[in-house]
Fold this sequence. Notes:
Blueprint: H1 2-26, E1 32-38, E2 42-49, E3 55-64, E4 67-70, E5 85-86, E6 94-95, E7 100-107, H2 111-122, E8 124-131, E9 141-144, E10 150-151, E11 154-155
Antiparallel strand pairs: 1-2, 2-7, 3-4, 3-6, 3-8, 5-7, 8-9, 10-11
Amino acid sequence: MEVAVAALAVLVALITWRGQANHNKLSVRPLAAVLHNDLNRRIVVTLANHGTGPLLIDKLRVLSKGRIVGSSLYERCDDWLRFDWFVGPVDGRSIPVEGKIDLLIYTDESESGREHLRALLADLEIKVVYRDIYGELQPTYSRHLDWFSREGGRRKG
């Protein structure tokens, strides 16, 4: 009888341990998000982590019409555009909880410069492959930047 009770106690302990391990993994899950702002004179594109654990970037790719065209937004922009801030490839970097990486920041008084950048960005998509702190691959995140396109002064989508 005592052996049966001890065996049952061990079984309950193992089940509890497994449940706690699953809970711990779920409670530190990253959540990628590409954010964009198109203000009066300023355009910003950011990769943020809205999850509850660190976001470990395997790779960020920029796509156009479904094809990979680069590993940073800056690569896709014309040299004459003068950015306040930009980053190159972010593969291998991490983002803490509620942290972010500004992919590009552009401020210009010229409406033509902003319109040109909007047109470039509107044709692109950002795809991010990332992991959690346990090294588990998370669902690939993808965001089209067609929000930057304009139709008669109104945004599509």
